[in-house]
Amino acid sequence: MRGAHLYCLPMKRAILWLFALGLIAAVAVVGWRVVDERRFAATRFGEGSRTVNIPPGTGPHALARLLADARVVSDANRFFTHLRWFRRDAHTKAGEYQFDGALLPDEVIGKLVRGEVKLYRFTAAEGLRADEIAPIVAATGLCAGADFLKLVRDPLSPKKYGVPGPSLEGYLFPDTYSLPRTAGCAAIVQAMVSRFQKAWQHAEAQRLESVRLDELQGVTLASIIEKETGRPEERARISCVFHNRLKKGMRLQTDPTVVYALLLSHDYKWDHNIHKGDLSIAHPYNTYFVKGLPPGPIANPGQAALEAALHPMPCDDLFFVSRNDHTHVFCPDLKCHEANVRKFQVDYFHRRRG
To answer: Is the C-alpha dihedral spanning 52, 55, 58, 62 positive or negative?
Structure first.
């Protein structure tokens, strides 16, 4: 029995040595992995611009593979390890992301956690019509131009989006918009109309008590003011002219409404010239033919035009004519106006032809 006991001692020592060696090896592996992880976490990777679409429900393994395939991170397995064991609290969001230049793994994760999805930007300038905004929207790839116009012109859309009017013309507020890939036509229109509603509230706060126009009438007048001048200092005075004419029951006789009538009558095709016969076409948008305001806006006015429509400056003017330098000269009576027409229109163009 003593011999058996002596035999067991070397066996126990061997087992202890093996255990110690195994423990040392395990510690070495863990240490190496920690060092490798720290090195991975501290190393930037990538160049140029890369776009990655992360579908909803994407797990950490699939996420790591998507990012590695797109060259956003250097190694899928190492990124998974970093995400799974060192950033367990990181809850990434689905969406389309754009990554630019060399990034640290934590910078990539931070962008995904914050949901900083790629945004598509477009700018609609003041005074554009819906058919002019449509190709600008279409260029983003978020919504086809035809689909945008279909929604804008749908007779049910005004009620759906909470605005008056025969269509959404006039309520697509001019601004710069940034929207994600998931936006679609409805979200784009909603963003533009929501922006209009805020602008209208601001204009309402500056309304003169004497101005009795309702929202549809106010936006319609603002759209005419927007098309008549781009000069900030003229908007309130042009508004005054139209308010004075409305009070006296005079026709507004404004050329932009003739243009809009021609566009509606000819499927938005126009030779960019107003002919004498165009002034007498029987159309509800032709303010040379009908009294008062047309049935709805003829373009999409900006903030300044909305405010001018509700807050005209005091004046006695009933007429204005272009000086051909983007400014206008104003008159309180027909005699003065006819003299200005001769000077700035008849004589001016006669000299140019000569």
So the answer is: negative
